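Data deposition worksheet. Section B asks for the primary sequence of the deposited chain exactly as it was used as input, without tags or linkers unless they were present during the calculation. Section C holds the resulting structure in token form. Section D is free text for depositor observations; keep each observation to a single sentence. Incomplete worksheets are returned to the depositor.
Section A, Depositor: J.P.
Section B:
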Amino acid sequence: MSPTSTFTLNHQPLGSLTGRLVDHQHADGQPVTEPVVHFRSIPYATIPARLRQSVLLDHIPDDFDYRPHGDFTQYGAACPQVPQPTGKGSATGG
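Section C:
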């Protein structure tokens, strides 16, 4: 597996943000016609309490998602999901 190419953007006011540079081949195997950068899991707001209005962030937290500050090359944590039933007659088709 080849090392991941990265690109760092100096964003005002968020600071340096590093994402994955996709310049050869997309994940589905298709060739890239123009390079793009994937910034994964950038936090954009906090929720101060349940069912309250979100508050937009004006900076990236130093301790966000257990990753180096400004590194958005990997996906973050997934939202919790309740196990879904499977099989005939279930909503997932089975």
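Section D:
The mean pLDDT is 83.
DSSP finds no helices and five strands in the chain.
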